[in-house]
Design goal:
This protein is an alpha/beta fold and about 350 residues long. It has helices at about 1-10, 20-25, 35, 55-65, 70-85, 115-120, 130-140, 165-175, 190-200, 215-225, 240-245, 255-260, 270-305, 315-330, and strands spanning about 10-15, 30, 45-50, 95, 100-105, 110-115, 145-150, 150-160, 180-185, 205, 230-235, 245-250, 265.
Length: about 350
Amino acid sequence: MVGTGRGAQLGVLIKGPEVLENTRRVDTIVLDKTGTVTTGAMSLLGIHLVEGQEETDVLRLAGALEHASEHPIAQAVARGAIAKVGVLPVPEDFSNVPGLGVQGMVDGHAVLVGRERLLREWSIGLPESLQRAKKSAEGSGRTAIIVAWDGEARAVLEVADAVKPTSAQAIAQLRLLGLTPVLLTGDNQAIAESVAAEVGIAPSDVIAEVMPEDKVEVVRKMQAEGRIVAMVGDGVNDAAALAQADLGLAMGTGTDAAIEAADLTLVRGDLLAAVDAIRLARRTLGTIKTNLFWAFGYNVAALPLAAAGLLNPMIAGAAMAFSSVFVVGNSLRLRNFQTGA
């Protein structure tokens, strides 16, 4: 009770007592990239057009579709489009393709906005100029979004996401707790490794280009290898993996689905909260074990004396009261738990 209460004060909500045991056993922590390691507040930084294409047309059609999506990348494109062209048209039809992008009808045009794989499903290829632009953007650690309509690729949009200021520090502290951090993302390998390098995760611990439905399989595979896995995420796409993990931690700034699936909710929304959550849970479990040791020790020592008539009832009553006071007092020490300590 004291541990969960102190956690609530620090912005860590613990769902149940079994969570405490799981934190002790965890040896691997899987980190979703967007919204967890990075801010998720992306910006539209560049636009590359095929010859003869107007920038305003690209932004108007792409922005209209992306405005209907809740994904951070989509919202970045929509904000950039609104800033340059003003009011966007309303899509006549819209559908989200998980992990690939969006598609729909805008002003009578069949529009696709997303990854190259989405275009391939519609048998649309990329001109050489857009291939170069895409490769250049990804090589610099940016996300490349392709825009196509009426059967032709028209532009590549560059979107970038900033790493949270506390992520590198948090990952270093997770290592000190004996955990191996693994970066998991649907972005391409170059972007993932760029972010990993910034926060101190080895390239061998980066798993990129993972479809949303495959995240849970990544966790299962690690568990099959004998690892005890914690997962930190914030989106709907992370919910299944959070539920599958031995310990699920959801960012409080994320979706309700992720929060519901997780064992711990990090209200503060940064990875340092994950460090504090694991440390507090381990400290709480340690306190429980200390209390049990002394409580059982008292009874083991006192029962034979009482059975032999060598223990005065008054002394026995006082000893029992002291035992209870000791357990309560030792537990209340958790109120002094500090972040980063």
